[in-house]
């Protein structure tokens, strides 16, 4: 079972690494990091580098595709190599998935036209403009079309656990959850847009501007 994680410049690290930490432990799974060119890409703020080990051309029949999000997705909304690859491999995947604004790339490639899809809360309107239907749900499944999308960053772990269940069974998913000790008990309850305040949102905007 080959799981392909797409990499590109200025992606959000946890969008890729969170699902990787779950899925790489599944029996028979091999995770491969793919991109337009082999070599290092840098995450959003440039602090962390991840390595593309295989080009899109070298990964033609993955069983699972994961497209992470991040500021770098904005450069992938016009026709580009990842669109061609997604359209080529999706017909034979077991699941084609995205995390955060990775769903915008799926939409730009024409894979989720008219479908409800998850993305980061800041890009609902952008996703709608690309032909999908943005929702505040954490994970959205279209199993008949083998599409799963997850909301911002940390939700990729939730999606990967659900994938573990779909690919193996619920015991495997629970084993993965226990192995990574995924038992969230955050010290604050502000992980969704509706739980925010004006003061918090102002700080979010300030911090986001320093990253762009």
Q: Report the oligomer.
A: single chain
Helix and strand run? EHEEEEEHEHEHEEEHHH
CATH class, anyone? Answer: Alpha Beta
Q: How many extended strands?
A: 11
Beginning-to-end CA distance, first to last residue: 36 Å
At CATH level 2, the architecture is: 3-Layer(aba) Sandwich
- Arithmetic mean of pLDDT: 96
Q: Total number of helical segments?
A: 7
Strand composition percent: 15-25%
Sheet/helix structural class:
alpha/beta
Count of the separate structural domains = 1
What would CATH call the homologous superfamily?
Class I glutamine amidotransferase (GATase) domain
**Which segments are poorly predicted (pLDDT under 50) over 5 or more consecutive residues?**
none
Shape: globular
What is the CATH topology?
A: Rossmann fold
Helix content: 25-40%
CA radius of gyration: 16 Å
Sequence of strands across the biggest β-sheet: 5-2-1-6-7-11-10
The biggest beta sheet is recorded as:
7 strands, mixed
Account of the 3D structure:
The protein is globular. With 212 residues, the protein is an alpha/beta fold. Helix 5 runs antiparallel to helix 6. The chain has one domain: Class I glutamine amidotransferase (GATase) domain (Rossmann fold, 3-Layer(aba) Sandwich). A hairpin with a 6-residue loop joins strand 3 and strand 4. The N and C termini lie far apart (36 Å). It has a seven-stranded mixed sheet, with helices on both faces. It has a two-stranded antiparallel ribbon with strand order 3-4.
